[in-house]
Amino acid sequence: MAEPTRPRPVNLVCPVLAARKAWLDAARDALQAEFGPADMESRTWPWEFSRYYEEEMGGPLLRRIYGFGDLVEPDGLARVKLTTNRLERELAGRLPDSPPRPVNLDPGYVNMSKMVLATTKDYSHRVYLGRGIYAEATLRWRDGAFEPWQWTYNDYRTDEYLEFFADVRERYRQKLAECGGN
């Protein structure tokens, strides 16, 4: 019989949506205050995949993704999602001229085999973590690159996102080697 083992720590990431670059910056600052310094930041991309968020967030929407320097335990993902939900509410209360929801924070993590996102929405391919939070393996590492699943959202299928998460994975590999967790 196999014995349970403790998984390696993972690289926290947080994709952010907002209608203004200043709000993306404010989200980064709030995230860093909670989770430590971001050691990776994507370019700012226009987000044109859906109009789902525009009523509560305004538009046109922008996407930026942050990767964080400190590795975290994967079983803390529910706590991270609850923290980002709180940050969304706090930012809504203090950002000037903001809509009801100025930022959307979608935390997750990258490890050597996958990119996982946390969500409050259940679905057939999502696993319950506790405290009202679910996890979804959004991308898998295969043949030297991240690739989407059939349920992966369209934006996470783009070359820009796939390349950014591959870069996070490489940085993560380096961090594991530095701490002897290779």
Secondary structure elements and pairings:
Layout: E1 10-18, H1 21-35, E2 38-41, E3 45-47, H2 54-57, E4 61-72, H3 77-94, E5 103-105, E6 108-110, E7 114-119, E8 127-130, E9 133-142, E10 145-148, H4 159-178
Helix pairs in contact: 1-3
Describe the structure in your own words.
The protein is α+β, with helices and mostly antiparallel strands and 182 residues long. It has one domain: Alpha-Beta Plaits (2-Layer Sandwich), CATH 3.30.70. It has helices spanning 21-35, 54-57, 77-94, 159-178; strands at residues 10-18, 38-41, 45-47, 61-72, 103-105, 108-110, 114-119, 127-130, 133-142, 145-148. Strands 1, 2, 3, 4, 5, 6, 7, 8, 9 and 10 form a 10-stranded antiparallel β-sheet that branches. The longest helix has 20 residues, at 159-178.
Keywords:
Alpha-Beta Plaits; 182 residues; alpha+beta
What's this entry about, in short?
Helices cover 31% and strands 32% of the residues. The chain is an alpha+beta fold.
What string gives the helices and strands in order?
Answer: EHEEHEHEEEEEEH
Percentage beta strand: 25-35%
Number of helices: 4
Which regions are unreliable across 5 or more consecutive residues at pLDDT < 50? Answer: none
Largest sheet: 10 strands, antiparallel
Mean pLDDT: 96
- Examine the coordinates and then state which fold CATH places here, giving the name of the CATH topology: Alpha-Beta Plaits
Query: What number of structural domains do the residues give?
Result: 1
Number of strands: 10
Oligomer: single chain
What structural category characterises the helix and strand content? alpha+beta
Helix percent band: 25-40%
